[in-house]
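FW: tagging you since you asked about this chain on Friday. Here's the raw sequence from the shared folder, copied in full. Didn't touch anything.
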Amino acid sequence: MTDEKNNKRVQKEKPIVKGTHKKTAPKKNTPQKKFLYSLHELSDFFGLSHTKMSSLYKIRGIDEKVKMSIDEAREKFKNIRI
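HL: got it, structure written out here
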């Protein structure tokens, strides 16, 4: 749009509307699910026989049906070389 008298460009003024700004919530980091492994899967992962892993469970008083994550298993079985 031009002003005819001065031959200069005139910018249109945009009205400022309050309250139209969208508020966004901060992203929440969802904790990743830890995979749980059975006694047989952990024994394969650590390179031990199933009977050796079973005895390690029994020594620590853990039921053989209990599933645990790899980090949890490393913490409980510190004395084996992993």
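FW: The radius of gyration is 33 Å.
HL: agreed, and Residues 50-59 form the longest helix (10 residues).
FW: great, closing this out.
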